[in-house]
Design goal:
Structural class: alpha/beta
Number of helices: 4
Largest sheet: 4 strands, parallel
Strand content: 15-25%
Number of strands: 4
Order of helices and strands: HHEHEEHE
Strand order of the largest sheet: 1-4-2-3
């Protein structure tokens, strides 16, 4: 996988847009404004970014596997790849909260080349939050060379 970053895209602006996209869609009922969504989708469409989904029951080692994959990519590619990790945690029906503790098990993400974001399912009737496609597009727009989506 060769890095193919768009020199015309402001990294600071896109990273801020990633945070806004995930936060706005995840924590409120308001959608990201159409102009921002369209800008992210256009930037993402210019790049072909592989997305790997990792799923399994709680305690099956998804986060450990993800951390090991990131560690090996970082070593093998000499930290030249940008990797985005989107970790989905289900919202607990009783409490309405989500653990969002996957970051604790990640030892290989302490670098500007790795973006990590926990996403709660919130009110979604499925295991996948509605903001996931926009979050993946934001990762591609940021310049991710590889996206890992970890789901329950």
């Amino acid at each position: 996988m060769a890095a193919a970053h768009d020199p015309g895209t402001s990294e600071v602006g896109v990273t801020a847009a990633m945070r806004t996209t995930a936060s706005t869609r995840e924590f409120t009922d308001r959608a990201v404004d159409d102009a921002t969504r369209e800008e992210l989708r256009k930037a993402a469409a210019r790049r072909s970014v592989p997305v790997l989904g990792i799923t399994g029951t709680g305690g099956s080692g998804k986060s450990s596997l993800t951390d090991e994959l990131v560690r090996r990519f970082r070593i093998d590619q000499e930290d030249k790849l940008r990797i985005a990790i989107l970790a989905v945690d289900p919202t607990r029906r009783r409490s309405g909260g989500a653990l969002l503790g996957d970051r604790i098990r990640m030892n290989s993400i302490d670098t500007p080349h790795v973006y990590f974001r926990s996403l709660a399912t919130r009110d979604a009737a499925t295991e996948i939050p509605p903001c996931l496609p926009d979050a993946i597009a934001a990762c591609a727009a940021w310049g991710a060379d590889f996206v890992i989506v970890e789901t329950p």
